[in-house]
């Protein structure tokens, strides 16, 4: 714990020192030039240079004609690189004259005004991430200010490793981010994030505001990214940055699954009703969703899916209008494909016990037997990880797998 604190402070101090240096040098450069500049390798625990790591929107115009894929293949494969290079998102002024629109709360009006803007440019990309034999891609929704959560995840369940066993390969981790939602945070945090990404090379960032209603944008941007850069990855785990994950159990669970299956597993809600109480975070006005219940969906805190299904989901989601709740939206995309998400006891993304004071919330033997458990802050995550991987004697093995 204190060791971790010290490491964190050290890295923050280093980051700040670097920030000053970087600002002096980079004053005259645009953000993109800044991102593509390479730093001296002597600074900190930089890994080997990653030549393709920070290049955004490469154009292949210099390729000789023989390198180019035949047109028929290209038509069926979609773009080979992220093909959105400009932000062209204008407000839908058609809505402003409608009385039902004017009576909505401001954040719903904002959502509807920009609902038609679906794809944005990339600010940080890692096209190389799925190079080699990747078995499981772990992607984590995060926001620019939650550096400590990413740090804790890198030290625990997000650590990259090679899984042994037949047909296995690497486990790789990426964080999914938009831009800072507060204007005053933007410039400052953006440079720190670029530095963090240089150290770890694990950030995907798109040029849209990281707000609650824009989480659906994060979902579809990731699916499009996956289709372009990781078309062959067998399995994907997607989750929040405040959960506990047990990678060993994930791998054990996947051992007898095939990537070709329509595998979509998590904490599944059946017949959930849209919430109509205005003071609830998940409140949805009747004009936005008229049906009495949602299609089955898995809680966004953490779920597993097969790579092939994820690619088909990308195309299914493209046929739907965006919905402000990201996990419900993914349930709608699954419905388009006629695929049912599967519920599993080991995914506890909606809470463990109704009783918040329940001893289960602190019980390492319980965490050891689970795949995903929701809501742990960085210090709690590090502590629980230590307990679960220490000398733990559990009276009986909880059988969930
Ligand atoms: C932006 O969108 C508008 C309307 O949708 C279109 O007329 C214009 O050509 C677009 N501009 C660019 C640069 O794509
Ligand atoms: C606004 O209305 C016009 C005319 O009905 C339509 O063509 C256009 O697509 C609408 N704009 C948006 C952003 O939906
Ligand atoms: C989502 O992001 C876009 C682009 O930054 C922004 O224009 C829009 O207002 C955001 N929507 C919400 C609901 O925050
Ligand atoms: C775990 O147990 C072993 C042997 O019983 C002991 O040597 C070791 O120090 C223990 N580790 C911790 C972290 O308690």
From TrEMBL:
GO-annotated biological processes: keratan sulfate proteoglycan biosynthetic process; poly-N-acetyllactosamine biosynthetic process; protein O-linked glycosylation
Function: N-acetyl glucosamine (GlcNAc) transferase that catalyzes the transfer of GlcNAc via a beta1->3 linkage from UDP-GlcNAc to the non-reducing terminal galactose (Gal) in the linearly growing chain of N- and O-linked keratan sulfate proteoglycans. Cooperates with B4GALT4 galactosyltransferase and CHST6 and CHST1 sulfotransferases to construct and elongate mono- and disulfated disaccharide units [->3Galbeta1->4(6-sulfoGlcNAcbeta)1->] and [->3(6-sulfoGalbeta)1->4(6-sulfoGlcNAcbeta)1->] within keratan sulfate polymer.
Topological type in the membrane: Single-pass type II membrane protein
Keyword Cytoplasm: no
Gene3D superfamilies hit by this protein: 3.90.550.50
Cellular compartments per GO CC: Golgi membrane
Annotated EC: 2.4.1.-
Superkingdom as given in the UniProt entry: Eukaryota
Record keywords, A-Z: Glycoprotein, Glycosyltransferase, Golgi apparatus, Membrane, Signal-anchor, Transferase, Transmembrane, Transmembrane helix
Pathway the protein acts in: Protein modification; protein glycosylation
Identification of the protein by name: Hexosyltransferase
Family: Belongs to the glycosyltransferase 31 family.
Subcellular localization(s) per the UniProt record: Golgi apparatus membrane
Record PANTHER family: BETA-1,3-N-ACETYLGLUCOSAMINYLTRANSFERASE, UDP-GLCNAC:BETAGAL BETA-1,3-N-ACETYLGLUCOSAMINYLTRANSFERASE 7
Glycoprotein found in the keyword field: yes
């Amino acid at each position: 714990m204190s060791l971790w604190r010290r490491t964190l402070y050290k890295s923050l101090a280093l980051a700040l020192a670097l920030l000053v240096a970087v600002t002096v040098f980079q004053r005259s450069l645009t953000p993109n030039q800044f991102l593509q500049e390479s730093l001296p390798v002597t600074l900190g625990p930089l890994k080997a240079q990653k030549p393709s790591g920070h290049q955004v929107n490469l154009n292949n115009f210099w390729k000789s004609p023989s390198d180019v894929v035949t047109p028929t293949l290209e038509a069926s494969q979609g773009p080979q690189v992220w093909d959105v290079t400009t932000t062209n998102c204008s407000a839908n002024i058609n809505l402003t004259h409608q009385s039902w629109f004017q009576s909505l709360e401001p954040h719903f009006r904002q959502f509807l005004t920009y609902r038609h803007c679906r794809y944005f440019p990339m600010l940080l990309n890692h096209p190389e991430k799925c190079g080699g034999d990747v078995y499981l891609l772990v992607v984590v929704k995060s926001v620019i200010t939650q550096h400590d959560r990413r740090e804790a995840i890198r030290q625990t369940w997000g650590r990259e490793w090679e899984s042994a066993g037949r047909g296995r390969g690497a486990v790789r981790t990426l964080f999914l981010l938009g831009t800072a939602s507060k204007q005053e945070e933007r410039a400052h945090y953006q440079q720190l994030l670029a530095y963090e990404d240089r150290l770890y090379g694990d950030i995907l960032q798109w040029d849209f505001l990281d707000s609650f209603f824009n989480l659906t944008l994060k979902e579809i941007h990731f699916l499009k990214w996956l289709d372009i850069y990781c078309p062959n990855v067998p399995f994907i785990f997607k989750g929040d940055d405040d959960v506990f994950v047990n990678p060993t159990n994930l791998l054990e669970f996947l051992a007898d699954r095939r990537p070709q299956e329509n595998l979509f597993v998590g904490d599944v809600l059946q017949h959930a009703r849209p919430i109509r109480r205005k003071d609830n975070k998940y409140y949805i006005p009747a004009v936005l969703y008229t049906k009495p219940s949602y299609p089955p969906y898995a809680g966004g805190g953490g779920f597993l899916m097969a790579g092939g299904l994820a690619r088909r989901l990308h195309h299914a989601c493209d046929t739907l209008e965006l919905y402000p709740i990201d996990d419900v939206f993914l349930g709608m995309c699954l419905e388009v494909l006629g695929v049912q998400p599967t519920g599993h006891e080991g995914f506890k993304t909606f809470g463990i016990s109704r009783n918040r004071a329940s001893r289960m919330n602190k019980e390492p033997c319980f965490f050891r037997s689970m795949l995903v458990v929701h809501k742990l802050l960085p210090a709690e995550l590090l502590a629980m990880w230590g307990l679960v991987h220490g000398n733990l004697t559990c009276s009986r093995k909880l059988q969930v797998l």
